[in-house]
Design goal:
By secondary structure, this protein is α/β, with parallel strands linked by helices. The chain has two domains: 45 residues; 118 residues, Glutaredoxin (3-Layer(aba) Sandwich), CATH 3.40.30.10. It is built from eight helices and five strands. A hairpin with a 2-residue loop joins strand 4 and strand 5.
């Protein structure tokens, strides 16, 4: 009678005890089940609206409180991300003007009315002109203060051929592909300060 050495039988155990069969290889341990996801992992992919529904369906007040706190954190994170849409001055060249200014001003952010568009401020400057250098400092501050508006910079005569220095610094404000306002020689008559938000760039109703 043939003996199957791999079978787990009392007879085979007796043969192994007397050295007739080699020791049986130990059975590999069963893999551990994957760890349960943390609450953050379980809720991480849910939208604020889904989190609200989940909290309303919770079986106890403690779960509802935890889910609601997480929902508020998610809303705060999303708002922070929205505010970081731009937030700085983007240098551009003449060949990028149409894409980065005109076309960019036609883009409507998700959640905004279809015709809202994007406010784009194009800053024309020239290094070495004091009022232009001061204006550049102001523009950097405004870009950080109003990250929903796109600020771009370009050397004046690279944008408009033979642009005289007397018109520097110059601002051109766009929305929906249209020029809303132009300001030339800003600061030439007197020293300028940042006093508030540019309505033309932030409010379509100010056209």
């Amino acid at each position: 009678m043939a003996v199957n050495a791999d079978e787990d039988t009392e007879f085979n155990d007796a043969l192994r005890k007397h050295g007739i069969l080699p020791p049986r290889e130990p059975t590999p341990p069963s893999p551990s089940p994957p760890p349960s996801p943390t609450l953050e992992e379980a809720l991480g992919d849910l939208t604020p609206a889904e989190l609200r529904e989940l909290g309303e369906d919770a079986n106890d007040s403690e779960t509802e409180r935890v889910v609601e706190n997480y929902r508020r954190q998610r809303v705060a994170e999303l708002r922070k991300q929205e505010k970081a849409r731009f937030g700085r001055v983007y240098p551009i060249g003449r060949d990028e003007y149409t894409r980065e200014v005109t076309e960019a001003s036609k883009v409507t952010e998700e959640g905004k009315p279809e015709s809202h568009g994007t406010g784009v401020v194009c800053f024309l400057y020239k290094d070495g002109i004091p009022r232009s250098d001061r204006a550049f400092e102001h523009i950097r501050i405004l870009a950080q203060r109003h990250p929903d508006t796109k600020f771009v910079s370009i050397v004046g005569d690279k944008c408009i051929q033979n642009l005289p220095d007397t018109r520097i610094p110059m601002f051109i404000v766009y929305r929906n592909g249209e020029v809303l306002n132009q300001v030339v020689a800003w600061g030439a008559d007197r020293e300028r300060r940042i006093e508030g938000r540019s309505k033309a760039a932030s409010d379509p109703s100010s056209r």
